[in-house]
Amino acid sequence: MSDRAAQPDAGALDRLFGALSDPTRRVILQRLVQAGAQTATSLATEQPITRQAVVKHLQALEAVGLVAPQRIGREVQYRAVTGPLTDAIGWLLETGGSWDRRIDRLRGRRS
Prior knowledge:
Layout: H1 3-6, H2 10-20, H3 23-35, E1 38-39, H4 40-44, H5 51-63, E2 67-72, E3 75-80, H6 83-110
Antiparallel strand pairs: 1-3, 2-3
């Protein structure tokens, strides 16, 4: 199998990294990972933004598969879904390994 075939979909990675580029979204995701499922209202209590702004950030995270909403009665609880991060970590490791191999080859040429 070639390196290209092992790589995840570039568009999906672009969207994932785009969603994670926002510091507020990273804080929200980290809070969900650490504390478990929460409502937008509870997430907004520790953010310097409105509940509606938190909902917009949650929608962006949901669009890339990093959070999943679940209606419980009148409330919607959001939980972290860390599976999409596996593709990103794999890409980072492969890319880092590729650069390591290139650097090693360059060092070998100078010897």
